[in-house]
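Quick one: structure for this chain?
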Amino acid sequence: MQKKQAQQVIDTDREYELWLEYKRTLNQEIREKIIKQYAPLVKYVAGKIIAGMPGNIEFDDLVGYGVFGLLDAIEKFDPEKHVKFKTYAVTRIRGAIFDELRTLDWIPRSVRQKAREMEDTIARLEAQKGGSSSDVEIAKSMGLDVKDFQKLVLKLSGTTVLSLNEMWQGQESGEKIAIIDNIEAPKNLNPEFIIEKEEIKHVIVTSIKELPDKERKVLILYYYEDLTLKEIGAVLGVTESRVSQLHTKAVMRLRGKLGNLKKGIL
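Got it. Here's what it folds into:
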């Protein structure tokens, strides 16, 4: 065991030195080596994403979109920040796939409108209460009974797969800030935007803490522990569809919080 741990330390050190050399020389042989080493990561991320997509979305297409994210990650990764490249790359790969999916506009307009209505309703209720609203309260405000509300949440689940990767766009630079944003603000950003970005991160962290317990656990297990919805269901002892509902409501609450921030309510 100690020998294996020592070897892992050596491998990590070698990779760090390899990254430093690549950033210094931009050697294309090193770049190809890095691409080859992390190419399986693209298929892994694409496999997780397609699980929540409708049948007309092709796995190979997602892989193709994700490759651009991997290449972008390689060019922008800074080994001096001592963040694992795998962690950084997953965010970039996922973001590239989501960006392309958004351009396809595969979500029907009627579904998109319902998602916006629910998001606005949650934002309004929680701004009034100063805390989380229940399913009953949200359903009543939307003119639905709880059963129909739960059906609607399931119907909207596909739209929220993208949501946490487009939660905010800065006014000064246009840079998007996601819930799992690992990228520090570039030095050339306007100082006002750097402050804005930190405030947004604070709101996101605070909002997550304020989520109902199961919704918070779903977000943590899905975005930080990298579990699938099915695996999360096994951990929490609920069905996969229930996990999907919890995820959707959690995303709606977070988007509502940021929506209120943008309107100056928070």
